[in-house]
Design a protein that fits this description.
single chain, 236 residues, 2 domains, two-stranded antiparallel sheet, 12 strands
Length: 236
């Protein structure tokens, strides 16, 4: 009976360690993906699986034919390590879900990417600070992450613009809209319909101009779109 109990407990410890390792590996994978978008993962545990206590030698064992004290210690240590791993994993998933990783117009093709290009109006080199999606007038545009609307209206060359603050210095911009469906101050959820595409402002035809900005500086939205695809297996 004693041996059976010890075998059961050892099996439980082994299973817990497997869960712990899996949780840390998943959290590490999420952190790696976030790092490629220039987002600094939140401060968390070290990610190392706690080492289990080494078995005591026979001459240090105490008691009769019961489970040895070191087994209980090992089991307790494994639970602590698992708890730490699960907390870290939950924080990683929460951070990933708070960022704009979704596609604003999933059924639309990308027609122009981020970077230097010939300006369609001036014919000289200029920075294209976002990506363009081919979207006929009236196409539904969706928020790429949760946040708060900080701009909703006519804004210079952007035409009708919606800008969402996602926290952590990250904002997204949705431009050339025909219709705006939200107001400044609205709290937005991921995937929520916020506008309809159009060709307002400095635009040669119907499309969506989409930007991601980090601390006010435009960054390539493809980093976030590609990261979103990779994160699907870890956060859903």
């Amino acid at each position: 009976m004693t041996l059976s109990l010890k075998d059961i407990e050892r099996d439980q410890v082994a299973r817990i360690r497997t869960l712990t390792t899996g949780a840390f590996e998943t959290a590490n994978a999420i952190d790696t993906i976030l790092a490629k978008t220039r987002i600094k993962p939140e401060d968390r545990a070290t990610g190392e699986v706690a080492e289990l206590a080494a078995p005591l030698s026979d001459d240090t064992a105490i008691g009769g034919p019961f489970v040895e004290p070191e087994t209980t210690e090992a089991f307790d240590n494994s639970l602590v390590a698992l708890d730490s791993a699960l907390v870290r994993l939950e924080r990683a998933r929460t951070q990933a879900k708070s960022l704009p990783f979704n596609n604003p117009s999933p059924a639309s093709d990308i027609t122009s990417r981020f970077g230097n290009r010939l300006d369609p109006f001036l014919g000289r080199l200029a920075l294209h600070a976002g990506i363009d999606f081919r979207a006929p007038v009236g196409t539904a545009i969706h928020a790429t992450g949760p946040g708060m609307v900080i701009t909703a209206g006519r804004t210079g060359g952007y035409g009708n613009l919606v800008e969402i603050d996602h926290g952590n210095g990250i904002t997204t911009r949705y431009a050339h809209l025909s219709t705006i469906l939200v107001n400044v101050g609205d709290k937005i959820s991921t995937g929520q319909s916020i506008a309809k595409s159009g060709s307002t402002g400095r635009s040669t035809g119907p499309h969506l101009h989409y930007e991601v900005r980090l601390n006010g500086q435009a960054v390539d939205p493809m980093r976030f779109l590609n990261a979103g695809i990779k994160l699907t297996q870890y956060i859903n």
